[in-house]
Every structure is written in structure tokens, then in C-alpha cells.
Specification:
Layout (H helix, E strand, L loop, with lengths): L11 H12 L3 H12 L6 H9 L11 E2 L5 E2 L3
Antiparallel strand pairs: 1-2
Length: 76
Amino acid sequence: MYLIRRPDYQSDTTQFIQQLREQKPGLEKRQFDGRELLWDKKVDRTLWQDLRASRVHQKAYVYYSFDQNGSDSIPT
């Protein structure tokens, strides 16, 4: 335990951010608006379920496949 209290340390980055907030008071609101524009979207989960259910799965290797009778078929 220290008897003499040292001043609180602030890094250069913390000081820069505090100065930036003082110089541009609307900065945080603009950041939240930008986040809302790009990331915060309402998701229609039933629509996504329908889209996933209607998806047609691609074969593992589309350029070479087997016929129903088991013989190899090479597309020409």
C-alpha cells in the first residue's frame, strides 16, 4: 500500500479518444448510426428457414458422376 497517491495514469490512446470526443461531440451517435446501417438488421427467421429448405444441394464433384445403373459417364 502506498502512502502517497500517484496521479492516475492515462495512456496516449485514452487521451486521444477523450480529446476526439471533446472536439466532435456527435461522434458516438454517428458511430451507432453507422453500425445500425451495416449490422443491426431485423432478421425474418421464417423466411430464412424457407430459403434453406428450398436449397438444392450440389453434388460433390459436378464434372464426373455415376449413372443410375452404375456405369461411369463423362460429359462431352
